[in-house]
Amino acid sequence: MLGRRRVLSVFITALFLLSSTPMIGAQDDDSSYVRAESLVVVVHDNVTHDSEAYTQGLEFYQGRLFESTGLYGYSTLREVNLSSGSVIRSVDLNASQFGEGMTFVDDEIIQLTWQEGIAFRYQMETFDVVANYTYEGEGWGLVYDGHQLIMSNRTDVLTLRNASTFEIEGTLNVTLNGSPISKINEMEIWGGMLLANVYQTDEIVGIDLNSGVVILHIDASGLRPQGAGVMNGIAFDSSTQSLWITGKQWPIMYNVTFIEPEVPSEPEPEVESPSSAEETFVYSNVLLAIMLATVVILLAMNLKDGGRNPPDEGALE
Ligand SMILES: [Ca+2]
């Protein structure tokens, strides 16, 4: 009888433990982040780009294209003919300075350097340097949103700076699907958001300017010409409402838009399926345990009753 009680006790304990197991899948119900919408690039047109230009900054000003190039001894600020790719005019940086991101603030241009900690402010029509600023850390991308300068520096934290003084006024942490995303490089304001190249990838991210959350995740793979450097250069021409993309020493620049992938991507269901399967597995275990426990309880009760009141065959009518 003690053996039956022990068996019954084990099953009831097992039932309790299984029923108290956390339901896998319920943990995934975290709505604290916005999942980025996945898009792909569609090319509408292309023009020649200087394959010698190690593109670090790319921006239009009233339909005119300007570019900042890098590498020690080759760094420039230049105005470029959009149709031919030829350099209209250019100013060289000192050979010890590696050009980086650039952007317009009204009719002036601010250009970063990579590790030299100095930014130059130019008068747009003359390329005369009218001011310079120093800063800590690396200089990567730079863009002006009409209110503040937004500067990237290799990390996931963008620096917000005063457009007149270059002083730091704030920061913006960039996250993709809930996790920090670093190596934000060349940038552009487009459609009310911040578009940015992610260094050493074929990805462009669309970042919410208030939260830093990536709301668009754009796959631009297939654009990079063979033998060329990484994609780095996004510029929106407001005079024609056209968006252009190029890269470091790319011989071509693409006019693009972004669309949803034609074939629905499979990864999402695959991500969901393991947790669903595990959830089903847990429920099955609980159900099985309940059934087994019920059988044991009924068996125990039956044996108990049987021992106390042996069947009276005479009563079977
Ligand atoms: Ca740009």
Please provide a written account of the structure:
The protein has helices at residues 2-19, 267-308, and strands at residues 37-48, 55-61, 64-69, 76-80, 87-92, 99-105, 108-113, 118-123, 129-134, 142-144, 149-151, 157-161, 168-173, 175-176, 179-180, 184-190, 193-198, 203-207, 214-219, 231-237, 242-247, 252-259. The protein has 317 residues and is α+β, with helices and mostly antiparallel strands. It folds into 2 domains: 2-30 and 268-315; 37-265, YVTN repeat-like/Quinoprotein amine dehydrogenase (Methylamine Dehydrogenase, Chain H, 7 Propeller), CATH 2.130.10.10. It has an 8-stranded mixed beta sheet, with no helix packed on it. The protein has a 4-stranded antiparallel beta sheet with strand order 2-3-4-5, with no helix packed on it. A hairpin with a 4-residue loop joins strand 17 and strand 18. The protein starts with a helix and ends in a 9-residue tail after the last helix. Mean pLDDT is 85; it is low at 14-29 and 307-317. Calcium ion (CA) binds at residues 58-59, 143, 186-188, 234-235.
